[in-house]
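URGENT: need a sanity check before tomorrow's submission.

F., can you look over the Fructose-1,6-bisphosphatase, cytosolic record below? I want to be sure the sequence and structure line up before it goes out.
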Amino acid sequence: MDHAAEAQRTDLMTITRHVLNEQGRHPESRGDFTILLSHIVLGCKFVASAVNKAGLAKLIGLAGETNVQGEEQKKLDVLSNEVFVKALVSSGRTCVLVSEENEEAIFVDPALRGKYCVCFDPLDGSSNIDCGVSIGTIFGIYMIKDKDNVTLGDVLQPGTDMLAAGYCMYGSSCTLVLSTGNGVNGFTLDPSLGEFILTHPNIKVPKKGKIYSVNEGNAKNWDAPTAKYVEKCKFPQDGSSPKSLRYIGSMVADIHRTLLYGGIFLYPADQKSPNGKLRVLYEVFPMSFLMEQAGGQAFTGKQRALELAPTKLHERSPIFLGSYDDVEEIKALYASEASAV
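Structure tokens as predicted:
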């Protein structure tokens, strides 16, 4: 990269400009979606700033409450949740919100309602805050048919109905990856400008990868197809090189690496968690949407992940997502087990 030339670049594609360009492709658009996204971006900037100052501001450590998943809440979790709820409500474009930190859906005051539903995990991987590992925000956006009579049933839509999804990773740099259903783009926060700049246009996940990502500590509880697949990664029978294992334990960071470098991310069901561990509405769906938009696949062990029809807000599901060919392999293992039964 020619850094001198980069420093002189003045024609910067900011995330706002990018979204406005997308809006221009839809003449019927009234700009509501653009306004909603700008509020999400503001929330991400606020949390990025808080994460950077966490140690200094004594935000690290437990807030003393436990969230609906039974996880002890970190102060940053609480702060991030408040930031995103307020940013989304004040946009005037949402009618219902689903957060990992709130047991019930948040129905917006009728005077401030718009036509969108946002499902989000305000700070994924927060157990990693104290050791400086990348953490992130995940979100998915849906349209609600009747904002004035919105019910819980309107929130429980399959992932195929999702309009947009993204995540913001707070790590060595602050990166926001977004898809509005027309490919995947990555933006990096330039702290000197306070703007997200397009740095990864049109991300495509490699068709096959050299990395597998899974918590091998759960291996004794895995089902046969998962165990067989991981065995194949480590001891390939076709003369190819073994895959490398990379597991951060922060979903945003693991998926970000998978999107850029290829490979497969697995969080299977096991005897301890028969329905898997990751939540459908604000972890599985947004990440599956992004992976498919980048040319990869997402599979639950039974079906295409985006075709799941959730029945509860905090429902969980197993998930295998990543490079197209790698997910094909695990699908074949599940199919052969099903046919053997």
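My own read: The CA atoms of residues 232 and 239 lie 11 Å apart. Residues 211-339 form a domain with the D-Maltodextrin-Binding Protein; domain 2 fold (CATH 3.40.190.80). If you see anything odd, call me.
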